[in-house]
Amino acid sequence: MEIRTELIRQLCAIPATSGDEGPMRDFILDYVKNNAASWKVQPVVHSGEGFQDCVALAFGKPRTAVFAHIDSIGFTVKYKNELVRIGGPVSTPGIELLGADSKGEVRGTLVANKNGTLHLNSNRMADPGTRLCFASDFREKRNSIQSAYLDNRLGVYVALELASTLENGLICFSCWEEHGGGTVGFLADFMTKKYQVYQALISDITWVTEGVKAGKGAAISLRDSGIPRKAFVDRILGIVQKSNISYQVEVEGAGGSDGTELQKSPFPIDWCFIGAPEKNVHSPNEEVHKSDIQSMLALYRLLMDTL
């Protein structure tokens, strides 16, 4: 299964911090418009009024939804170039940041002060409220891909690749995951009431840990800070175990995703997080093994056909 690294490169270069996902929304809508004619099934596209910056694609008669968040971590400029974190970005001094304000491009490096505050070292003051992202530096290696924002541009990539062959299913591109998961509630309401869908897979990126290794397959999470229903996870494992797709199981006590927000919703939705593991989490140097991306996409294609 060939990985389309150019598409991943494009996704990673789009600035879309939590609360400012419009550029990613527009890319997805343009991508669907330009590519859907060649897909197996033409989706119904839900966006615009009532969806904020979210997009939902409905294929055939959906039984299962895929959630992929389109926002990223970053920083907000406060006053006099002081920075406030968006989500949990690595804040190593010297990291290059960029954005735009009323005067044009904003570019500089991150400074960590002894009192714990963060500042932007730049040739001018940025407007308060300016959003800043890690500068894009996409690197393709023989066995891996390295870039800022593989979390969760790879989740979006898998969802877009899945769309080309999906016959029945719902793909929900959500917002604010890195800073609170704010759109999952109304997407849960939408999927249950509009399509009567009550199960979901979370297309997101997890961490390389002592129990989850790079190059050993995507991780099927048995739990993190949220605990999915065992019957649903067991059903997924039963399907996957009959395949030849490499995978790992993950058990953690912290961390969360759109799945955690689904669990907090008032709707009886089963969910399971399935994602490739990465090194250098929430940094400009996130790294994911190519075979784990292939495993992740293969798992989604299998499960969306079977569940």
- Which stretches are poorly predicted, pLDDT < 50 over at least 5 residues? none
Number of strands: 19
| Cα separation of the termini | 22 Å
Q: What structural category characterises the helix and strand content? A: alpha+beta
Rg (CA only): 19 Å
**Total separate domains:** 2
Helical proportion?
25-40%
- CATH-defined superfamily of the largest domain: Zn peptidases
Number of H/I helices: 7
3D shape:
globular
Detailed description of the structure:
With 307 residues, this protein is of the alpha+beta class. The chain folds into 2 domains: 5-72 and 139-306, Zn peptidases (Aminopeptidase, 3-Layer(aba) Sandwich); 74-134, Peptidase M42, domain 2 (Elongation Factor Tu (Ef-tu), domain 3), CATH 2.40.30. The chain has helices at residues 5-12, 22-35, 150-163, 184-195, 230-241, 258-264, 290-306, and strands spanning 44-46, 55-59, 65-69, 74-77, 82-86, 96-101, 104-112, 118-121, 131-134, 139-140, 144-147, 169-174, 199-203, 206-207, 218-223, 247-251, 270-275, 277-279, 286-289. The strands form 3 sheets. The protein has an 8-stranded mixed β-sheet, sandwiched between helices. A 6-stranded antiparallel barrel has the order 4-5-8-7-6-9. Strands 10-11-19-18-14 form a 5-stranded mixed β-sheet. Helix 1 packs across helix 3 (150-163) and helix 3 (150-163) packs across helix 7 (290-306). The longest helix has 17 residues, at 290-306. The two termini are 22 Å apart. 45% of the residues are buried. The model has no long low-confidence stretch (mean pLDDT 97).
